[in-house]
Amino acid sequence: MPVNLSAPDPAQLFPVAGVELGSARAGIRKPGRRDVLVIRLAAGSAVAGVFTRNRFCAAPVQVCREHLVDDAGGAGIRALLVNTGCANAGTGRPGLDDARASCAELARLLGCDARQVLPFSTGVILEPLPMDRLRAGLPEAVADLDAGHWAQAAEAIMTTDTVAKAVSRRATLHGADVRVTGISKGAGMIRPNMATMLGFVATDAAVALPLVRQWVREAADASFNRITVDGDTSTNDSLILIASGRSGLRIESERDPGAAELKAMIVDVARTLAQAIVRDGEGATKFISVVVEGARTDDEAAAVAYAIAHSPLIKTAFFASDPNLGRILCAIGYAGIDDLDVDALDLYLDDVHVATAGGRHPQYREEDGQRVMQKAEITIRVALNRGASATTVWTCDLSHDYVSINADYRS
Amino acid sequence: MPVNLSAPDPAQLFPVAGVELGSARAGIRKPGRRDVLVIRLAAGSAVAGVFTRNRFCAAPVQVCREHLVDDAGGAGIRALLVNTGCANAGTGRPGLDDARASCAELARLLGCDARQVLPFSTGVILEPLPMDRLRAGLPEAVADLDAGHWAQAAEAIMTTDTVAKAVSRRATLHGADVRVTGISKGAGMIRPNMATMLGFVATDAAVALPLVRQWVREAADASFNRITVDGDTSTNDSLILIASGRSGLRIESERDPGAAELKAMIVDVARTLAQAIVRDGEGATKFISVVVEGARTDDEAAAVAYAIAHSPLIKTAFFASDPNLGRILCAIGYAGIDDLDVDALDLYLDDVHVATAGGRHPQYREEDGQRVMQKAEITIRVALNRGASATTVWTCDLSHDYVSINADYRS
Fold first, then answer.
1. Closest Cβ opposite residue B334 in set A54, A125, A343
2. N or C of chain B: less Cβ packing under 10 Å?
3. CB–CB of A279/A287 below 8 Å?
4. Distance (Å, rounded) from C-alpha B104 to C-alpha A277?
5. Across the interface, do A359 and B54 touch by the CB < 8 Å criterion?
6. Quick one: A287-407 is in which CATH superfamily?
7. Cβ–Cβ gap B324/A91 under 8 Å
């Protein structure tokens, strides 16, 4: 059961002019479900992406990187091709050949160059992409292309997700009606080191390519790079930002009218999509925000936040709604800050002051912790009181269902 | 169900002259179980320890460090006091006062100085030590002191352990009958960064104190520092090595006759005790050795080994006996080696060559992986093929029972 997350209402997903989406049931891994997605972009769209830092990055990620640094760069990209069911990772040279061949096949159908297509895959690692089925599914997906198909697109990229993830924002900026719409997928193997498994965000504003490249990085840092389900950084993480340029708003620099507002909309969409992944985290029953303040450096804040967010002991205690909060102190203690003064820090659970001066706060009572633990959304706040850096990481609990889902993933 | 681990046979636990053990049922946390242990040492015993690097280290760990660097150093230690049920960690100054008071109380009963007592606690963090019950239990434990009580001692330090852990070795060295006997406890919050939760190893050889100090560190590095259950480094990890000097073997330097053999016995006992913790890891159904070879540095080998050993996705796949081995490649990929050539490495599961040249080995068949996955003890071997460093880490799988045990730990 996802935490405060329901399937998107298609009526609330605003089409983005210049962006059409079409999906097919190609039987990549399981029959009868949407598993291939094509996104066609109008000529002149600016496209940029951030990708996993996993050294075993998937073949499609390698091809994406090549196609985005080609002469045409992100200005020539005309289509995205996504399949679920097979990650095409750990597949060596044959995997690269498959990723390139799938771009070529879609390019043939759309009348563009293979290097104008970006490929994406998600699913099981170490298994070859079933090229025959993928190829056979492409015409159906192309025939389905429509600017109103964001909801079906979100559905087509799901793996162990229980809910499709899509979100849309709309505003009048500098006189133009501007939209930002995005989709994402992911539920396990989530500790993005760039982005989530897959995220696609599009706006109809015209944004200069260097700025698209900068904003996709900043948006990832404020969203997908701040979530974790199980600490496993995937081989396929990709976040793509598209600016189709059809709305009448034109942004060349961050000082242009509407730029700040548009960037905020993009970050908002990316963050909402990222949090949706945690809310639908495998087996999740609780949505946990870990806030670390008063750190000396950003790295220090992140180290403490991730130590807490990755601790199986903390995650199981939250699953049980058990305020066994000493486990949080323990994680702070092993986060790697050698000169940490444990007597100087404060720990809060929502509004409850749990620990101070190296031990339990004098006013802390078990029932206060218990009360907060019953909630579906909880904030763990650590004030290190040694500097001015802060960070927030979003995560979920660790339940029986996480084990079940991942023990049975391939069956 | 622990993996190939049964309770120790008391007849196989050789007494160590100069070391007596006594336990009591003090009701520290739950009634009716042994939860307080006293170990009395003959005058002149050499004692050294290694302790957790967690910054939130428990009060007893802080007191141990003080007492081991006092003027008397490790040569004056006459007793160890261990309680289970409460970790006395995250307890601030009152926790330190309690740890010191418990040493003083035992010292009074044994007729020694408080600084000649080392205190140890294990159990729930952030709760005060129930001093009244601990104090009340001490006379019973002292009355129970006996050199033959190693098995009861192992039982008295258990928390979520399902099996008591004790092991013994005996040899004739340089004409003397020499024994090494040890006990340990631990099942969760296990990623020792020094030692396990608690480990005590004693020999009746006379070993010079500087050598005891050196050997306890080397033994920890070859044993407790190579295991992980859940990646949570505890607040209370402690490994203690005692040399009572009653056997007639006297070791002043590593070049003395019998020194190499004795050291090997100590490492063997420590490693067997450490592996017992993994075999009895919370919810464990499989014992997994992660061997990383051909790394450029020891740190690099350890980073890859721990990335594999901590991945919840890998651990759940092993629980399910599912050869979803792409997850291992994924973990290697995010282990932090920036210039790793994934095409150069090889992955083996026991004798099965799984991956090479960046993808699946041509001869690998699913049924080969399936066959190995059915076993209770499995070796994952990664040949990085880029250097001469290697390491081994022992871990277990992640099962439903891990979640159950840790969701219910305090109830």
1. A54
2. C
3. yes
4. 54
5. no
6. ArgJ beta chain, C-terminal domain (3.10.20.340)
7. no
Closest residue, chain B, to A95 (C-alpha): B359
User: How would DSSP label each residue in A111-128?
Assistant: TS-GGGEEEEEEEESSS-
Facing residue for A359 by CB, picked from B53, B91, B189: B91
Contacts of A162 (CB under 8 A, 6+ apart): A1, A2, A187, A280
Is there a contact between A195 and A271 (Cβ–Cβ < 8 Å)? no
Residues B56, A332: C-beta atoms closer than 8 Å: yes
Q: Coil, strand or helix: which one is A182? A: strand
Taking the C-alpha atoms of residue B280 and residue B161, their distance in angstroms, rounded to an integer, is 6
Structure tokens at A286: 């609780």
Q: How far is CA B270 from the centre of its chain?
A: 7
From CA B80, how far away is CA B77, in angstroms rounded?
Answer: 8
Q: How far apart are CA A37 and CA A145, in angstroms?
A: 9
For residue B114, report the phi and psi dihedrals to the nearest 5 degrees.
Answer: -55, -30
How close B360 gets to chain A, by Cα (Å)? 6
Using CA coordinates, name the residue in chain A closest to B308: A232
Q: Where in chain A is the domain with CATH 3.60.70.12?
A: 10-277
| Correct CATH for A10-277 of 3.30.1490.190, 3.40.50.2300, 3.60.70.12, 3.10.580.10 | 3.60.70.12
| Contact yes or no for B249/B50 (Cβ under 8 A) | no
